[in-house]
Write a structure and sequence with these properties.
The complex is a heterodimer. Chain A is of the alpha/beta class. Chain A is about 35% helix and about 25% strand. Chain A has a domain of about 180 residues: 3-Layer(aba) Sandwich (Rossmann fold). In chain A, the strands form two sheets. Chain A has a six-stranded mixed beta sheet, with helices on both faces. Chain A has a four-stranded antiparallel beta sheet with strand order 2-1-4-5. By secondary structure, chain B is mainly alpha-helical. The chains are: A alpha/beta, B mainly alpha.
Chain lengths: ~270, ~250
């Protein structure tokens, strides 16, 4: 592990609205090393999405300091250090699959040769080379999200921000894309910050899991995932995998004050 | 056609209320005062009106677009100007048309301006909505990629608003023809379907089929415009699943 790439110190966020102030995050401090895969997990309303957006300079923190690669988050965004994937694919429907992946390269004014070759290489990486000329609606949800990941990687960002990217997919597709995401990440040097509802997904993907509790959002625990890499389908069958899943689930239940009781349906995922 | 003739028989309508279809068709073959057949007279006037409508449509479309971009850009501008834009559409076009003709003369230009007057409003309203109705995450993506506001406009807002624009243009296409015809009604105009309709209306009791023929031709211009816009829409917005068939 190299130097810290993301440093959060006492980050707080309060949303003001006509209904009054909502404290979304309180005193969040976290340091992420370059090359890590860190998941943020927690129930709805724990501010995990806000935290991700604060790191990406899409939301301004009310208090605290965010340093990314030694710069402030704003400068990091202008330097195009981020690749971002949302819960929905957010593909531009007037662009073909290939042109969607090309978008970041166009915005950054990259040379023509790169704008031509890079999107095709990325499309191969996510296994969609046969769909270059298709329009987004002609693709399944899982395929669309693969395109979205390819687009996030277009500028070779040092940080990959993912906001529940597989949340809307069925369990089978989700597991397959988890696997693919790890392969894709292995080919880049990007540090990943990954927001999820799913405990199994967090354990499978991460080097560390940040467990958050709601109202206001605070970091409750950080679980280090010591599962061997590369992770495959066999990883999911390891006793250690189940131990970690249980550990994360326990922390989430303690947060909700439900220790020892069954989780509420839809509460904290599988 | 069957319904037309059946209605005529059922209610025993005389020809001055509803002429036979063949009477309307024959009217096109009748020779006019100058010795030309009516089909040719109609075609010339229809062409004249179509040209005025087209110029007015383009003029109104551009005006509407500029206003929409301005409104989407600045709430302040919208608050200041929108009331006047709305008020402009509440004044009957029949009242405004003679004034425009007085100001700008009886040439094609005054008609095009009246056509533009009816065209720009749907474009402004729909397009300023379209430019704002962008998915927040699509916008967040642009921000995360450090896009300039120029890039955000041309690569996101404008293409995302195109379906809204074409919905407006479909409405405007038919409205522009109405505008041009209304613009031809005031005294002094010499060409166009408006002139033909006025004349036919004066001689209606004597030759009712003539007015019906003029109405038919006017409708055909409007329908042709509408379909032209729809065809362009299908080409440009081919990526959308929501383009209506017609």
């Amino acid at each position: 592990m190299a130097s810290p790439i993301i440093e959060l110190a006492d980050v707080a966020k309060t949303f003001e609205s006509r209904a009054g102030a909502t404290e979304a995050l309180r005193a969040v401090s976290l340091t992420i090393e370059a090359g890590e895969f860190v998941s943020i997990i927690g129930p709805s309303g724990c501010g995990k999405s806000s935290l991700l957006r604060i790191v990406g300079d899409l939301v301004e923190p009310t208090a605290g300091v965010v340093r990314v690669k030694g710069k402030n988050a704003h400068q990091a965004r202008l330097d195009r250090d981020y690749g971002i994937v949302f819960q929905t694919p957010v593909l531009y429907e007037w662009r073909t699959v290939l042109d969607n992946i090309r978008l970041p390269l166009e915005l950054a004014g990259r040379p023509r040769a790169e704008r031509e070759q890079r999107p095709r290489a990325l499309l191969r990486l996510v296994g969609l080379q046969d769909f270059a000329g298709h329009h987004p609606w002609q693709l399944s949800g899982g395929m669309q999200q693969r395109v979205s990941i390819a687009r996030a990687l277009a500028l070779n960002p040092s940080i990959l921000l993912m906001d529940e990217p597989f949340g809307a997919l069925d369990e089978m597709t989700r597991e397959r894309l988890n696997q693919e995401l790890l392969q894709v990440c292995a080919e880049t040097t990007a540090t990943a910050l990954f927001v999820t509802h799913s405990i199994a997904e967090a354990v499978f993907l991460s080097s560390r899991i940040v467990v958050m509790s709601p109202r206001p959002g605070t970091i409750d625990r950080v679980v280090t995932v010591d599962l061997p890499r590369p992770r495959t389908d066999k990883t999911r069958a390891l006793p250690r995998f189940f131990e970690l899943v249980t550990e994360v689930r326990q922390s989430l239940r303690e947060d909700a004050g439900l220790a020892g009781k069954p989780a509420r349906p839809g509460g904290s995922g599988p | 056609m069957v319904i037309w003739e059946a209605t005529k028989i059922l209610f025993a309508l005389p020809s001055y209320q509803l002429p036979h279809l063949h009477e309307i068709a024959l009217d096109f073959l009748r020779e006019g005062a100058g010795g030309e057949r009516w089909v040719w007279i109609m075609a010339q006037n229809a062409g004249y009106t179509a040209l005025e409508s087209l110029i007015g449509f383009a003029l109104g479309g551009v005006t509407g677009l500029v206003l929409a971009v301005g409104f989407a850009h600045s709430r302040w501008l919208e608050r200041g100007l929108l009331p006047y834009v709305v008020a402009s559409q509440t004044v009957p076009i029949l009242a405004i048309a003679p004034m425009v003709v007085v100001w700008l003369g009886t040439s094609w230009f005054s008609k095009a301006v009246i056509a533009a007057y009816l065209t720009f409003f749907p474009v402004t309203v729909n397009m300023s909505r379209g430019l704002r109705a962008v998915d927040p995450d699509a916008l967040a993506l642009m921000r995360a990629l450090a896009a300039s506001s120029r890039q955000i406009f041309f690569k996101l807002r404008f293409p995302a608003a195109l379906p809204y624009l074409f919905t407006a243009l479909r409405i405007s296409a038919t409205a522009s023809v109405i505008g041009a015809i209304v613009g031809e009604l005031p005294v002094g105009s010499r060409f166009g379907m408006g002139v033909v309709i006025i004349n036919a209306a004066q001689y209606y009791n004597w030759r009712p089929a003539n007015l019906w023929a003029a109405i038919l031709v006017s409708a055909v211009i409007g329908i042709a415009f509408y379909h032209a816009v729809a065809a362009v829409e299908r080409r440009i917005v081919s990526w959308s699943r929501t383009v209506p068939a017609v």
